[in-house]
Predict the structure.
Amino acid sequence: MKYQEISSGSAQVSIIIPTYNESQNILKILKSIQDYLPKNTKAQTIVVDDNSPDGTGKLVEEYMQTVKKITNNTIEVIHRKTKDGLSSAILKGIQFATGNTIVVMDSDLSHPASLLPKMIDALKHPKCDIVVASRYVNGGDIIGWTRKRKFLSRLATVIAKKGLGVRVKDPMSGFFAFKKPIIQGLSFDAIGYKMLLEILVKAKNANVTEIPYTFTNREFGKSKLDSKIALGYLKAVWKLYRFGKQAAKEEKRKSVSFLSKAGRFYSIGAVGLAINYAVSSLFTDVVSNLWYLHATIIGIAVSMSSNFVLNKVWTFEDRNFEPKHAGIQYAKFMGLSSLGALAQLGMVYVLVDHYKVDYPIALVLAVAASALSNFLLNKKLTFKEKVWS
């Protein structure tokens, strides 16, 4: 580690900013933090740079050499040799943080430093352990995202809330603050890019406050969201699910209740929705310009098959894949799900042809309407469980 600092002594607040190729934004966010920090708050800003080819870390060092006096803000730069991921960068920053209050924010100006005073003030309350800057509570908003990006964000949020039992409205937020003692003794996997989600799951008795803010898409630089990050997120969710299951066993309580199974079933339904949407869109717009109803049928068939495997293994924890046993289950699952699919197909047709609803919206509404009956019928008839167990 190499760092440059001014001022000395322990901070009250440590602000962690992971960076990779953010040379166009980093100085602006550092200046903005200094402008909005409460004047009576001693802060430490930690830039964790993953060896940015554009010289982000070096730029911060040069900037610090030009600053003559900062009375309440120490700035440090941690240089990592490789690009090891956002969550691990945050953990590295936490290791060097001297403040009892930790703030995590992006360096691309999408997280407004003007919200820092409100977040820091909220954590002064004895019954507040975590503050989440939320896009999805009343007053929150997103500016500059495409419809696809919003859909993926909502889908990831549904998976986190239903699959992991997280009650926060924006568990995918990258802008949050917490009291450092709440993570003492916890072990973190640091997989993927959503450290907040791991903290929410593992610090399960923490009190959370959500503060609305408007997320503004970056003006400079390139977004880091890609398929690798999406796969990392799914891997992190799976690891957190296993963590929750093990913790439940240790507490000698049932690992799976009716509500948690329903949550997992709906999470898989959300994944199925994405598969359904992708396959239907592929056959409608790319492959052969099929009539939208034909494309929908193909999308339903593919998503139903993937849903069966995922629900068998995850939701109902049935690892018996003996051909006869699994074959009977598959036939029942497909049959029962087909009833819901017929209702879904009819609903799509009515909404599109009679009410002129856009096809993607009609598809989402139809899938949601058939989800509950699919869960109850398959729980009872396919996997032979009591409905309310």
